# Entry
Amino acid sequence: MRRVHESCSHTLVPADHPIIVGVFDGFSWIRCEGKGSFRNSPLMKAYAEERIGAGEKHLVVDLDACTGMDSTFMGTLAGMASKLSAVDGGTLQIASADERNRRSLEDLGLDFLMEIDPPAAGWQGKLNTIRNELKPIGASAASDPRGSGLHVLEAHRKLSALNEKNEQAFSAVVSMLEKETAKDAKSPETGRQTQS
# Structure
């Protein structure tokens, strides 16, 4: 399997929640090792957006080594799937979801946005080869607390918009996050941090 050049230029890796990636003929691969959470989902989102911006139509998120996912991580997946659905022929596929992760995705209705372990996918039967060629990407050195809050808010808005059950489950969280991010945006201290 030929591996294609990657353009991602990040340098620091969150060691406790690594995201490792690869670009191959016909798809880009994102592997979450450890818990998928609000900590590593911005990195996953940035990489996905970079690849979609480069013309990628097929993203695969590998959950084989993922020990669980929080709502921000799953909301980020929903956002990625939505972006790809706007691309002609675009798809988000999930590889190697164990029973727990599959159930988490299905409980929130994400199985309607993405393909979970599709048997006819071109990467099936090549998992070891793909995983051996992945490389870590890193987070930006300066973490913007306001940007992180906006990311968490956006992820929960995506989940809430999926169905009525999610809207009821996450409405209080979305409301609280909206208040927090609005307060952070007005805070002069936060403003100084983001300008440096």
Summary: The helical segments are 41-53, 71-85, 99-107, 127-132, 145-162, 164-186, 188-195.
